[in-house]
Every structure is written in C-alpha cells, then in structure tokens.
Write a structure and sequence with these properties.
The complex is a heterodimer. By secondary structure, chain A is α/β, with parallel strands linked by helices. Chain A has a single domain, classed as Alpha-Beta Barrel (TIM Barrel). Chain A has 9 helices and 10 strands. In chain A, strand 9, helix 7 and strand 10 form a beta-alpha-beta unit. In chain A, helix 5 runs parallel beside helix 6. Chain B is an alpha/beta fold. Chain B has a single domain, classed as Aldolase class I (TIM Barrel, Alpha-Beta Barrel), CATH 3.20.20. Chain B has an 8-stranded parallel barrel with strand order 1-2-3-4-5-6-7-8, surrounded by 5 helices. The model of chain B has no long low-confidence stretch (mean pLDDT 93). The chains are: A alpha/beta, B alpha/beta. The interface between A and B is medium-sized, with 35 and 30 residues.
Chain lengths: 255, 375
C-alpha cells in the first residue's frame, strides 16, 4: 500500500478534474478509475459556498480524497495565501502546489515552489509539489518537509509520455518520499512504464478527459497502473540484446 | 524604451500584404504539416490560397484546442458602464460626434446591473466604457472594482488605454484582464478612422500592451476591428504583436478577438467584407499558429455561426449581452454601441454548448489566487 503522510492508498492512480465535457461524465470516469486522490483547481470551484458547488458535490465519495491545487498563482506568497483559504474552506491540509508563472507552457517555478514548500510544511500542510524532473530540487524539497514529489514526465497536457525518463530514474533511486509522476502521461502504457520503473503513483487528467470515451479510458488506466506496479514488485528481468556464450575478456583468469 | 513599435517599424504594410497574397498551396501544405508554425506559416494559413484547405485546418484546430483546453467553453458577459467618449471613431456608436444622450452609471445603478448579471449565472464580467478621461478615470474604475469585486470571480476591462502607473494602481483592486484592440495596424487609415481625441495617437495605443505587460497584468486581449482594412494583413500584425508580447511578458496570458464591424445608427459601412468562411479560416489559423492563446467570440456573430464555431477552436463566448450602459436593468431601451446578432439568453447558449458535448464553465478564477488583492 502506498502511504503519503498519514493516509494509505490502495490505488496508485491519482486523477484531475479539468477538461471533461460535463461534470457528470467526470464523476463517472473518476469512479471508474478507482482513484482515491483527486485534484481540484481552486479557481474552478466556489470556495466560499462549496456545499453547493456542482463539481465538489460530484466528488463526495467515501473513498475519494480531495487534493486542492493552486493552479493560477505565480509565486510563493500567492500559493501560501491560496493554500490557507483552501484548508479553511475544504477542510483539508493537503495541497498540490502548482506555481507556474508562465501561463503558456505552465512550467513550474522551482525557486518559488521550494520557498512555498518550506513555509507550508512548517504550517502543517501536507505538500505535494508539481516540479520539473530535477533530482537536486527533489532532495531540497525533502529537506523542506515535502510529503511527496511530483516531477513531470513531459510538458503538462502534452500526452508525450516519459520524456524525462533519465532524470525520473535518478529521482526514484534517490528519494525518501513518494514519487508521483504528474504531467505528460498520455496513454495507459505510459502509466505502466512509470510504475514499472518504480514511481509510487501517477497523476493523469488530460489523457482521460479528452479521450474518445473517458469512462473506458479511466478503467484502462486503472488496470495499467496495477500492471505496472505488479511488474515492479515482481522485478523485471534485465533486457539483454544478445546471448553471451563465452568470456573472451576474462577467461585468462581461469588459466 | 523598447516596445513593439520597434518591431512594427521594420514592417511595411504593402509588402506584408503582397507576401500574404503571394502564398501558394504548397506554402499552405507546408504550414499544415509543420509541428511548430512560424509567422510565415501564419501568412499562408490566412491567405486566399488556404481556402481549399479549410476542413483540414478546422480538424487540426479542433484537435489542438481539445488537447490544451479540453471540452469546455468559458462564459463571460460585458457590463457597459458608460457611453461618454471624447474620441471620434468613424465606426462606433459612442463616437463624440454622434448626437445621443450620454450616461455613466452611478454605484447604485451598477449594482442593479450586477444583480441581473449574477442572476444569469455569471462569475466573469467584462467592464466596458467609452474613452473619456473625465467621466471614466482611474479613480472611477477603482471605485467600480471595489464595488463589484465581491460579486465576481474574474474581472476584465475594455476601456481607454492608460499609463503604466494607472494599471499598477488598478491591479491590487482585482483587475485581472485588460482588452485593448488596435482596431487597425494600418497607420494611415488608423488616422482617418480616429481623427480626434486621445485615440488618434496610434503609437500610444500600439504600446499599451507593453505597459500592461510591465504592470504584470494576468491576461491581455488583442485584436483588430475586421472591416476597416484588409483583414489578412491586419491579423498578421496581430499575430506579430502576440508573438512579441509572449516572449517579452512571459508571465501574462493572452486572448484574441475578431470582431466584425456591426451596423449602428448612422455608422460606417465596412470597407472590407469578411464572410463566415473567412472568419472560420482566421480562427483556425490563429489556433494553428498558437496552441495556447484563448480565442473569444461575442454576440456580434449570428446564432447559426456561433452554434457551429464552438467545436472549432474558440475558448470563450459571451451571451445575453447588452451594449448600452444600463442595458440590463436601469435603461434597457437606450442606444446600443452596436446591434448584437445573437439575442439568446446565457441559459440557452449553455444548453447549445452542452448539446455539442462541451461544458460551459462559469468560473475559472478565484480572488484567493491573487495575493494582495484587497478583500
């Protein structure tokens, strides 16, 4: 079982709520995904009157935990302000930290993210920061008290898969906190791959929401994540390109 | 100061226009197959040579829009605060020389209008005025922002261009987005259409987005008034402007509009007609050129056109709009800035969006994301 802060998760598929053609379809897809951690953009929900918010009402399942995100903020100050409001309104101290001052490519700001993580962790938040696949930043975030790291696989919304694979492998090898691959996962096979290399979980939104059949795609991701984790636990055989029959370089040792 | 004007000066209208009209089918095919498209590709896509490729452009535009924005369309509505204006614009119902009763809404009248707009379900509002530095000045806007901020998640403004210091003063009051249309990038014709008032200063208007970028505005909207000049050339300059701004003010978001000149009492007939097919071509060309830019459509367009454009690349739509100050509640019968073509209610438009398999989004911002905005 995956454990982040004080919560355990039987599903390693985390999901988002954006881009769906209707909130009813979103609900159906997220239920089919089996996801237990669902991120919600503060900008999309009625934070003040959240009891009446259609999107939030549709996520009221005992197995679904809300993960409010700060998408739209441009620096640490704004992120901290938003996180406090989210905690008060939605009664959760979990926060997905998204600080992308660049609204075109939505690239996370490492400096502001580190600053905000330090502050928010001190304030008792369970911080899950969206970041570049930067191994050193991950270690610095650990020191700052982050609950997990969420490096991107490729640009957010791009569906390009694990373009940052070499850096993700270093992050996974070095990390003392769960590693959740957050952006760019475009197909169930990408998700399987992420879990196979040892990622603790993946977060998928666009690939489900914009697919031809979001409910079936969500179910496909559910299976894919399970398969990837199972393969990781079963330990993959190393790929070998050809058979090695003799040892021409070391046979002299046997003489 | 370096501004867009430096780049603008290196382009010649006549040469740009000639190069657009010289584009061939081969240029269009090259643009269609490119993964990252350049300004030259954009020229090909808005050229007459692209017309036979319209269906292909629309399909690409739809795919790119879905990937970036998903199956959602944002809803917004204009709130006209004033029709007082010290400019003469040959195409505008609020022009200084147009004899009409002038009105600027008082705080109480604004709240009457707000009540109606809120009842329609809106969280995103666009404040519109004429350009009059006496009736509608920075202090007036501060008061209006303070007044309406508790009622809206997102506030945009389409008013006179202002100085950098003015924009810096207004952002802490919750101003998120500013729209400022150049009307036309044809400098000589611009002078003909704006013979009097502060607006006659082409360069001051051209450099307004620079000032907005320096003020750190969250989003700015660009566009030209289609019908004043050759739209293909004007829209190339819009794309050039966007390209420059995105690189320089990389922390701001951008949106584009493509208003076609609408009739008003005693007004100018369009010099250049753009038909529906050409407007679709333009929308798709903008999308193919820039995958991230927001594209907005207003009630200037007909119900038939608006119904069918939802899936083709636009990202926001207005509905139930009134283009006269007091039009929602205070003085519904007063003179409008222009006649709207689609009079359906926001609820009806939302239904049309849902029928197309998209979700109408009423709220996509929250004041809690802007630290320092006075609550």
């Amino acid at each position: 079982m995956l454990k982040i802060a004080n919560k355990t998760f039987s599903s390693r598929l985390f999901t988002g709520t954006g881009k769906f053609s209707s909130s009813a379809l979103m609900e159906e897809a997220l239920v089919a995904s089996g996801s237990e951690l669902v991120t919600v953009a503060l900008k999309r929900v009625d934070v003040k009157n959240n009891e009446q918010d259609d999107l939030l009402i549709r996520l009221k399942y005992p197995h679904i935990n809300l993960l409010p995100n700060t998408s739209g903020v441009r620096n640490a100050k704004e992120a901290i302000f938003a996180a406090q409001l989210a905690r008060e309104a939605l009664e959760t101290n979990w926060i997905k930290l998204e600080i992308h001052p660049d609204p075109k490519y939505l690239m996370p700001d490492p400096i502001e993210t580190l600053k905000a993580t330090e502050e928010l962790a001190k304030m008792g938040f369970v911080v899950l920061p969206y970041i570049h696949a930067d191994p050193v930043l991950c270690k610095r975030l650990e020191d700052a008290g982050t609950a997990a790291v969420m490096p991107l696989g490729s640009p957010i919304g791009s569906n390009k898969g694990l373009k940052t694979i070499d850096f993700l492998e270093i992050i996974i090898a070095q990390s003392n906190v769960p590693v959740i691959i957050d952006a760019g996962i475009g197909s169930p096979s990408d998700a399987t791959w992420a879990l196979e290399i040892g990622a603790d979980a993946v977060l998928v939104n666009t690939a489900i929401a914009v697919s031809g059949d979001p409910v079936r795609m969500a179910a496909a991701f559910k299976i894919a994540v399970k398969a990837g984790r199972m393969a990781f636990e079963a330990k993959l055989a190393s790929p070998v390109s050809h058979a090695v029959a003799s040892s021409p370089l070391t046979s002299f040792l046997d003489a | 100061m370096h501004s867009f004007n430096d780049i603008f000066e290196t382009h010649n209208w006549g040469e740009v226009k000639a190069s657009i009209y010289a584009k061939t089918g081969a240029d269009v095919e090259k643009a269609l197959s490119a993964t990252k498209r350049t300004l030259e590709d954009f020229k090909a896509l808005v050229s007459p040579a692209a017309s036979p490729y319209l269906e292909q452009m629309a399909q690409l535009s739809q795919q790119l829009t879905l990937k970036r924005f998903g199956k959602v369309i944002q809803m917004y509505v204009p709130l006209y605060l004033s029709n007082e204006c010290s400019n003469i614009c040959t195409y505008c119902g609020f022009s200084y020389d147009n004899k009409m009763r002038r009105k600027t809404l008082s705080p109480m009248e604004i709240m009457q209008e707000v009540a109606v707009i809120k009842d329609m379900g809106y969280e995103h509002v666009l404040l519109v005025t004429g350009e009059d530095n006496v009736a509608v000045h920075v202090d007036y806007f501060k008061k209006v922002l303070e007044l309406i901020r508790p009622h809206f998640a997102h506030i945009s403004m389409e008013v006179q261009p202002m100085d950098l210091e003015d924009y810096e003063q207004l952002t802490p009051y919750g101003l998120n987005t500013v729209l400022v249309y150049q009307e036309t990038y044809h400098r000589e014709d611009y002078k003909k259409h704006h013979p009097k008032g502060k607006k006659s200063n082409f360069k001051y208007r051209l450099e307004t987005p620079d000032r907005l970028g320096q003020a750190g505005i969250h989003k700015m909207g660009l566009g030209v008034l289609i019908g004043l000049e050759d739209w293909r050339t004007d829209c190339f300059f819009t794309a050039l402007h966007l390209n420059y701004l995105e690189k320089k003010y990389w922390q701001s978001k951008y949106s584009l509009s493509f208003p076609r000149l609408r009739p008003f009492s005693g007004g100018l007939e369009p010099k250049v007609e753009m038909n529906d097919r050409e407007l679709v071509q333009l929308i798709c060309a903008y999308r193919l050129f820039n995958e991230e830019v927001e594209l907005s459509i207003s009630t200037r367009e007909s119900p038939h056109f608006r119904n069918n454009i939802i899936k083709l690349g636009i990202t926001s739509i207005s509905a139930g709009s009134k283009t006269n100050p007091g039009g929602y509640a205070v003085e519904p019968g007063s003179l409008e800035q222009f006649e709207i073509s689609d009079e359906r209610s926001p609820a009806e438009i939302a239904k049309v969006i849902m029928q197309q398999g998209y979700e109408p989004v009423w709220k996509d911002w929250d004041n809690c994301l802007t630290y320092g905005v006075q609550n």
